[in-house]
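Proteins fold reproducibly. Look at a sample protein:
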Amino acid sequence: MVQDEERAGKTELASGQSGGGASARRAGLISWCLYDWANSAFSTIVATFIFPVYFTQMVARDPIQGATQWSYAVAAAALAAALGAPALGTVADNMGRRKPWLFAFTLLTLALTTALWQVEPSPRFVPLALALYAAAATSFSFSLTFYNAMLRGIAPPDYLGRLSGWGWSLGYAGGLLCLVVALFGLLKPEPPPFGLAVAQAEHIRATNLLVSAWFGVFSIPIFVFTADRPATGVSVYQAVQQGIAGLASSMRQIVRHPGMGRFLIAYMLYSNGVSTLFSFGGIYAAGVFGLSVDEVLHFGIVLNVTAGLGAAAFAWVDDLIGSKWTILIALCGLSSLGLATVLVESKDWFFLLGGALGLFVGPAQAAGRSMMARLAPSGLETEAFGLYALSGSAPVFAGPLVLGFVTSMFQSQRAGMSTIVLFFLAGMLLLLPLREPNRSKAG
């Protein structure tokens, strides 16, 4: 049945026919991509460029201690997401529908992000900031498990790379525009709008409210227009029982699927580098090059532009040469440019190399998602993407912990940031022998 739906979708997309069915499917695909536009506000502002910098520079006692504390919060969120995602995926597969779960975790993420407004610029608020961020990041990760699992059910097999890439590129565009709104709507105006007090950093804290509004409004279309699998009629209680009973068996079946285990381990390694890069990029820029919050935002804008361009351009490459080689090309670029970015002393060179680095961030993420969609066994997509989330999250605490340890040991953020290159190289080496499935087939 899944294969029939995919073949039908392929015919409609390829022919460009009008009509209710084709138009509804296109609306569903666009709405699915638009969720990337919506959720990237959280990734860009809360997880990368504004709140982490605000925390380390204005909430924590000092930037070095702040970077270390932040690494622990990122690690805790990653571990929590890793432990929960496979089980949630199993329950969702037993119940059939994914959108109710996506809605619940989206709503929870919005509530926790809104609560970050309460974090004032004082060390007294360090525990609150870390707890709220860790909870929000965990909920956000859970939402992505269900969102990513929808990909293969709505896209034809030979459009998986393009749809995944287009989603990522639209996400970067959304993150970019949200950064611009935050910069010129909240941070630059003097005095700040709405009577926001600079002394209490209310103009910076208000960016969390902007993220909640942005994420909430632009996520509406996926719940209205994107198709979901039918409900199986299994209750939550039954789904949990069946999920617990069958989780180990299903996980063995998924991991034994050709190439799945190797890819998950490779993804585990290189995604560690990507997530650490995103989590600490803004902190590194502020700490090593002395960038102000405004300058970090400017760098974020540059990075989002180049990452969006890279994701859009490599979306076609993915379907042309395959996800594996797209990922390998991206990791080569990330390794070489990442090392160069850590070594440079000039702020101008940092901006130039960091912008170029962005060209390969999007393809590594988008091609990983399409690769997983191609490898996932039919009927176990959500569970497979739960393992994908596990693989991407379980060891992600290792990257921040290693970075935090090296930063603390050498009292150098530059030394700590250099550790991400090792994760890229290890992922490349493991991915090289992998045989990719036929791109004209799914599952």
The radius of gyration is 21 Å.
